[in-house]
Specification:
With 417 residues, the protein is α/β, with parallel strands linked by helices. The protein folds into two domains: 2-56 and 352-388, Urease, subunit C, domain 1, CATH 2.30.40.10; 58-335, TIM Barrel, CATH 3.20.20. The chain has 15 helices and 17 strands. Strands 1, 2, 3, 4, 5, 14, 15, 16 and 17 form a nine-stranded mixed sheet that branches. An eight-stranded parallel sheet has the order 6-7-8-9-10-11-12-13, with helices on both faces. Helix 4 links the parallel strand 8 (138-143) and strand 9. The termini are far apart.
Length: 417
Amino acid sequence: MAILFKNARILTMKDDHIFQGNIVVKDNRIAYIGNDYQAYAPFEREIDCNNNLLMPGFKNPHAHSGMVFVRDLVKNVSLQEWLFKYIFPREDHLIPEDIYHLNKVAYLEYVNGGITTVFEHYFFPDSSAKASEEFGMRTILLGTYDVKKTSVEKLVERVHYYNDRKDPLVRFVIGFHAEYTADEELLEKTKEAIDIAKTPFFTHMSETQKEVDECVQRHGTTPAEFFYKRGLFAYGGGGYHCSHFTDEEVKIFKENNLTIVSCPGSNKQLASGDAPLNKYFKEGVRIALGTDGPASNDRLDMFYEMQLAVSNNGFSVISPFEYLKMITVNGAIAMDIDAEYLEVGKLADIIMLDMSNLEGDIISNIVNKGSVNNVKLTMINGKILYENGNYFLKESLDEIYKNADEVKKRIESEMKK
């Protein structure tokens, strides 16, 4: 059976053209775009879009969803103090079941705000996978070598387990936290795993000037150059934040088709420095936007990230359409998701935006005035998970929040012992 979206305005994101039309979704993919849709009848459901906008879902290519348990923990401290004094000690108490429960709270925010894919970088990726598949959230997992828990063989095994299935909702790539938390063994074993599994590599890099300076002191080179010379980008990938790149690092990213994932909200809250996106864009580097985790960013909201990026960089170099690409097309390319456009054969990761306050220059108004309040519907993998304030899940909202709250209370109790 198929689902029909009719009487819609459609923005495919292949270009900035918006047109009237209808979309048919069959199973988990887009089956038809046009006016002669009766060949696909009968429909499981017909949704009258009432001239509202259908477009690809937003992609969040950098997140630590489970960090909802340390949301609002502390503000106005540096990244290093925040991590080593407040965050890492609490994360030491996490167990796999915690991530399963905590992630779902973040997923509620994602689908409410039109986010259809998240690049998950946190502990216990198998728990994230379980939560994602149960909830219906499309997820890319970042797995890390760990001498005590995850050998090279096991890491490669996880890549094949998740990636070799047809149309997986969850996929798996390799990376680690950052240069300043990576020892020589981690670097060597990560390279070994990447070469066997042939996956992209992602990590935090150049988030603060202090991080860059200390990397130069340790290795005689900046983070992106260091990773490049170690061969970690052999199969592509990119970096999170990248706020303090040198000209040479920009060149490395451009020539190797890597993606800068800027996180304006997190950078603002931690005062890490704003990425010069105008410079990166002029040099031809692919830019995507991410939320980072809910501990360093109170809002898991791609509209907010896009509008902060505009506030920091303006429109003299980057057009509204290019900003919108940063939270759709470019994120999908970074995560290798077949859902960058609305097109026949693409995955049915679709959102509907209420146009009542976004008339006129629609793309400019989405970029400048859009908010989560404009999201009327979120479909992931051909299934509607959110529509007009209602969630369609296996688990009740009360149960999701109750389980996450119990995790937070337990960890805070253990911190006091």
